[in-house]
């Protein structure tokens, strides 16, 4: 029996769907601090849950016979800077609640998302390796960096099978991204279809590592299905898909929507983006559990526009 926290978020919305398809709708319990979106409630069990309430979480785990937890609830990089201590508290206390309950109840597995936000200005900018300097400059990145070491501690000290991925910026069409620095790469599609133009909050040449959500979900399921002995990185695996700049993404959109226009008004999120690597080396994930992304920039762009807007060929007249 699987429990997902943060089920209403950008990853959670897709991961609950994929887990329910894989394991059966009643084997996956979705939870979030919000009331559920209809689709989540229609497709299986849902509970409103505050992940900071350890007692409530433990009750749910024990009463439902949970054996795995996917703990997604967190505050992201941009929102996190508005309230640093509340971000640290939610991101860390909730993870420690999950790790402690998983240890005490001897759960089979835990998944926890980290991020390329654990890297900072002193990390290699291009092809950033798995093992290198991690000096994050956001509270989100600091919490993910610390969380990775807590995950490794619970694996080494208590034998808890907790696994993690350093997601790059994730792009999806079904749930709006919320509070991230890479959100421009989601918003741009909605604006391109709705308005035919987009004002980007990052500079046109800002290279960032990204991944299309179908690839991210598949990577998560493949990581969790791999034999434990193959998972030798117990902080969090680098994961890469594609890297591009806003200008390159706009160009890809223009091949489908020729009239689309972009302009640039960098804001505070530029400083965050500039602190992150432009591309990631994920050779450990490829070698340890056969990771391989499927979507390139053009395939992702075509699929996003196919799902977000009216048929683009009609739109082009
Ligand atoms: C953010 N989408 O922008 C997240 C992600 C690498 C970035 O972790 O905060």
TrEMBL record:
UniProt GO MF annotations: L-threonine 3-dehydrogenase activity
Stored Pfam families: Epimerase (PF01370)
Transmembrane segments: none
Domain NAD-dependent epimerase/dehydratase: 2-232
A biological process term (GO) from this entry: L-threonine catabolic process
PANTHER family, per database record: L-THREONINE 3-DEHYDROGENASE, L-THREONINE 3-DEHYDROGENASE, MITOCHONDRIAL
Family affiliation: Belongs to the NAD(P)-dependent epimerase/dehydratase family.
Protein name: NAD-dependent epimerase/dehydratase
Lineage: Bacteria, Pseudomonadati, Bacteroidota, Sphingobacteriia, Sphingobacteriales
């Amino acid at each position: 029996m699987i429990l997902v926290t943060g089920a209403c978020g950008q990853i959670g919305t897709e991961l609950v769907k994929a887990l329910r398809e894989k394991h059966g709708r009643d084997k996956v319990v979705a939870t979030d601090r919000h009331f559920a979106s209809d689709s989540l409630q229609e497709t299986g069990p849902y509970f409103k849950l505050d992940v900071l309430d350890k007692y409530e979480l433990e009750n749910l785990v024990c009463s439902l016979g949970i054996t795995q937890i996917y703990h997604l609830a967190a505050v992201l990089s941009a929102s996190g800077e508005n309230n640093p201590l509340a971000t640290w508290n939610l991101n860390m206390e909730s993870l420690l609640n999950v790790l402690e309950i998983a240890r005490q109840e001897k759960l089979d597995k835990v998944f926890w998302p980290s991020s390329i936000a654990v890297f900072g200005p002193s990390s290699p900018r291009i092809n950033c390796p798995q093992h290198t300097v991690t000096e994050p400059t956001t509270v989100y990145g600091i919490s993910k960096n610390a969380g990775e070491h807590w995950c490794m501690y619970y694996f080494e000290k208590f034998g808890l099978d907790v696994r993690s991925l350093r997601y790059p910026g994730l792009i999806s069409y079904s749930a709006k991204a919320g509070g991230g620095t890479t959100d421009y790469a989601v918003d741009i599609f909605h604006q391109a279809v709705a308005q035919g133009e987009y004002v980007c909050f990052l500079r046109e040449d800002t290279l960032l590592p990204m991944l299309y959500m179908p690839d991210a979900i598949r990577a998560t399921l493949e990581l969790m299905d791999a034999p434990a002995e193959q998972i030798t990185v117990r902080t969090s695996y680098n994961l890469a898909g594609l890297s591009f700049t806003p200008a390159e993404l706009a160009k890809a959109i223009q091949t489908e929507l020729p009239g689309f226009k972009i302009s640039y008004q960098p804001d505070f999120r530029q400083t965050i983006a500039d602190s992150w690597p432009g591309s990631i080396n994920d050779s450990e994930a490829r070698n340890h559990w056969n990771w391989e992304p499927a979507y390139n920039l053009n395939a992702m762009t075509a699929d996003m526009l196919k799902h977000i807007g009216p048929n683009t060929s009609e739109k082009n007249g």
